[in-house]
Amino acid sequence: MSHLESSVQSLHPAPEGASKQMETTDQIRITTPEKVCGMGHRMKRKEDPRFIRGQGHYVDDVKLPGMLYMDIVRSPYAHAKILNIDASEALATPGVLAVITGKDLKDAGNLHWMPTLMSDTQMVLPIDKVVYFAQEVCAVVATERYIAADAIEKVNVEYEPLPAVVDPFEALKDEVIVRDDKEKKTNHVWHWEAGDKEATDKVFGEAATVVKQSMHLPRIHVASIETCGMVANYDPTMGKMQLYMTTQAPHAIRTVFALVSGLPEHKIQVISPDIGGGFGGKVPVYPGYVVCAVASLVTGKPVKWIEDRSENLQADSFARDYHITAEMAADAKGKITGLRVKTLADNGAADAAANPSKFPAGMYSICTGSYDMKAAHVEVDGVYTTKPPGGVAYRCSFRVTEAVHMVERMTDILAHELGEDPADFRVKNFIKPEQFPYKSPTGWEYDSGNYDAALAKAMDIIGYRELRKEQAEKRARGELMGIGICSFTEVVGAGPSRDFDILGIKMFDSAEIRIHPTGKAIARFGTKSQGQGHETTYAQIIAEELGIPAADVEIEEGDTDTAPYGLGTYASRSTPTAGAAGAMAARKIKAKARKIAAHLLEVGEDDLEWSVDRWQVKGSPDQHKTIQDIAFAAYTNHPQGMEAGLEATDYYDPPNLTFPFGSYIAVVDVDSGTGEVKVRRFVAVDDCGNIINPLVVEGQIHGGLTQGLAPALFEEIVYDENGQNLTGTFADYLVPTAVESPKWETAHTITPSPHHPLGAKGVGESPTVGAPPAIANAVVDALWHLGVRHVDIPITPQKIWKLLRDAGVSD
Amino acid sequence: MIPGEFEYHAPSTVEDAVSLLDTLGDEAKVLAGGHSLVPAMRFRLAQPRHLVDINRIAGLSYVREEDGHLVIGALTRESELEHSSLVAGRYPLLADAGRVIADPLVRNRGTVGGNLAHADPANDHPAVMLAYGATLVARGPGGERVIPVDDFFVGLFESALKPNELLVEIRIPSPGAGSGGAYRKLERKVGDYAISAAAVQLTMDGSMCTAARIALTNVSPVPMRANAAEAEILGEEPTEDAIEAAGRAAAAECDPSADLRGSEEYKRDITRVLVKRAIRAAVTRAQGGA
């Protein structure tokens, strides 16, 4: 690809029947008794017994007879010519079987390059030059892990260093070309726009107030506890390739492997076992996976490759890295009228972002957020630098994190500039409940929302007005305290096939349910849990629809030989897509069950009504057949002319995305001596529509808030001027712990999605999206009177110390 | 993250350990808690040919008072210090430090002796022991040697211990009446080394400071006393002006280098702030406050 034509997206309206305003409530809907445990029940997670007891089964737990081990030689330079690779000393080491280089891959059928998810290309192993620090250079295959680790030090690679280009603004000067394999010798990859430029410029021309701010959302890493890895098991006799793999999207990976390798797709089985955190980082295909598969093909033996922590932090896809300049306009009444945004996206050495094909900047154009405005225009330019490729949507629906951070910072700056309270200013500018479904100036159709209710609840819980009084008193004493709000709108559940695909594969998802004769069930999905609790949530969806106790429903995912095809789990899409497919498949089963019940009860189908777990005769509930009765009959006494069995499959193509939202409020205290920021309180009110399992939702929000605290105050991938990664271990890549985390105070409002079969929306990523701007806004709020307008995240003590000392504040 | 090849030895007595160290010379490293050494080996920054594991040696783990000293066995885990009521009651400087060394998991394994013998200016015990004026007891082939802490740290990761000597005990003089101490540390997150930290141990006679030792963590290549800072309060009344002067003196005499934790300028100024806070806390404690 590399040069997408500039395109303006247009999203189609939701289908008929979806265009209605949804009521908001605090009450979680429960329609099943506890023994059934359908939606709304706080069921303990079915998968937890094995995780708590250390019985999870991860890729590194896979041990196959005769298995070999692979380790990777990595580049010590960010940009260098490869003059020679001398593997003789490594090959002479007892136990070393092979050293695989880029030349070998080329000879094996041009496997030295591979497509990225964005239809760019990326080296698997280089032949001529390396383009990022820690890039895979060649791989050693040995009989033992330890031998492989020793042998990579015996591969002598001769480099001729080339100048690195780390800064994307420098890269745009094209003085150092990162990708000289491309026809066009430029580091500019693509330009993309959304919204109406003319209308936006007009709004800015008429504005009473305009605020402008540049900001950088730095490179961060998903830092999942389990690193990436694979066991590739090629059986030369049967010609079958088994790939045990840390992947969030096993089916898509199988298809991509088939297309790239030439192996027939029915001879490829991708198995994604338990995954120790994905967060988007296990969506891409990394060179290590490809080389590991080749190593198994070449040796005819199973080969294991497991990254170590530094490899994971240094070479795998990053997230964020957007350089943003935004302007926000308001009229004389303090009403937001427009937003104008220019952004530079640092892609690293390849555009390996995990975005739907039509969206090189993902859903970034959702950036008007929760605010009703006349016009907006967004421009993004993608740039190559000599850094690892990316960027993945880290617990984020395709760049919505960047969009929300920008709009929430700008809203706060504008409120402060106008001398208005940031909460009151938001309420004044919110899209109102009666405006839903709401068409945004950049073309999105928000399905449902009630932003006033969520913010009011958060303000009530935290005691917002009292905190403002406390802040004023403290400020008079010279103490620094800040209150920050983020009222975000998320956009999740990609997505409708007319707009969303990855490498051409439409972003539907699937479920297949089989009811056994005794009324128990197994259900398989095209998604893949990495900690989200699918085994519980999906079981509860089926329990809700069919009345089969959730405990009686086995959930399976991740094996492409058994599960129906789907696009996987990321971007908070599992409940909006596969969860919906589960409900729809259950409804197909329910329809067949009705026919069987009518047959058993000798009544017409129209005489029956559904109640929790049974079809009963209208007005005569004693006459009924439970789902268990019906299941048994489906195999023992089904009507003549009807197929036996009770199962169904559904491929769900969502009519629209879902738009969860929430209001978060953070209270921070700033140490004027050291610059330390302490988050004293944090209230998160989330609205993800109907809640399937409140316990799972709260767990998701707690984890996500901590992963939002992380980039706000701690995490950043740092490079020196030579492109060397300075944060390649957990000693310097600062993942916060329970000690750094405040007590998360969570609450909800419920505004159902009008188009999702269960009224549910995705939720896993809302807290990661909403937390950073709440904290950043709180810090700036604490320092606004000192002339501080903005601080880039991560907000480190040193940054605050500098601002304080520049303002003449010390201790 | 896989270390290079090494031979592993697990002696069960101090004598055997010393004898092994004597034989193996500088190709051997002592393995105690392992929380500095093992990461260095996994990154292959350290590739010792021999590891002498002292964890099976009995009688090297204790915290007790004797002969006017708090004596600590070199193999005492940090968590044991952290949870010692003796330390909590009488040694507030040590108690402060015990709560902020690395993280709880590391403190369960890491040892007091290892923290000192590694001679890392980023570790917390060097400054604490410098402020206490502790003595360190080493055992070598020739028997026992007592080393004043002021002579112990000789270079970056370099102590006065000879390759064939094992650190066995740390002795802290029990503070007399009117004494107080405090440790104040700024770190990026729990488990990180200090951006800077200040250890203060002083004695008050009425409103006058009659003894003061101040030491700093991670702002110099070698663990250091802040002599100029001490001079600002010693024999003086620790007024806010004197405390500010001590902070400024420490900021001037330390020698930090810029890294991901901060610029040199930042570290100096934070050292000033932390020294002041530690002095204030120590004075309050010396005068009977919390």
Describe this structure in words.
Chain A has 811 residues and is α+β, with helices and mostly antiparallel strands. Chain A has three domains: 48-55 and 509-652, Aldehyde oxidase/xanthine dehydrogenase, molybdopterin binding domain (Aldehyde Oxidoreductase, domain 4, 2-Layer Sandwich), CATH 3.30.365; 62-162 and 226-276 and 282-315, Aldehyde Oxidoreductase, domain 3; 318-494 and 656-806, 2-Layer Sandwich (Aldehyde Oxidoreductase, domain 4), CATH 3.30.365.10. In chain A, 27% of the residues lie in helices and 25% in strands. In chain A, the strands form nine sheets. Chain A has a seven-stranded mixed beta sheet with strand order 3-7-1-14-11-12-13. In chain A, α10 packs parallel to α18, α14 (534-546) runs parallel beside α15 (574-601) and α17 crosses α18 (766-783). The longest helix of chain A is centred in the C-terminal third of the chain and has 28 residues, at 574-601. Chain B has three domains: 7-53, Uridine Diphospho-n-acetylenolpyruvylglucosamine Reductase, domain 2 (2-Layer Sandwich), CATH 3.30.43; 63-173, 2-Layer Sandwich (Uridine Diphospho-n-acetylenolpyruvylglucosamine Reductase, domain 3); 179-286, Enolase-like, domain 1. In chain B, α9 (227-233) packs antiparallel against α10 (240-253) and α10 packs across α11. Chain B is 35% helix and 27% strand. Chain B starts with 6 loop residues before the first strand and ends with a helix. In chain B, α2 (37-42) links the parallel β2 (28-31) and β3. With 290 residues, chain B is α+β, with helices and mostly antiparallel strands. Classes of the chains: A alpha+beta (811), B alpha+beta (290). At the A-B interface, α4 and α19 of A face α11 of B.
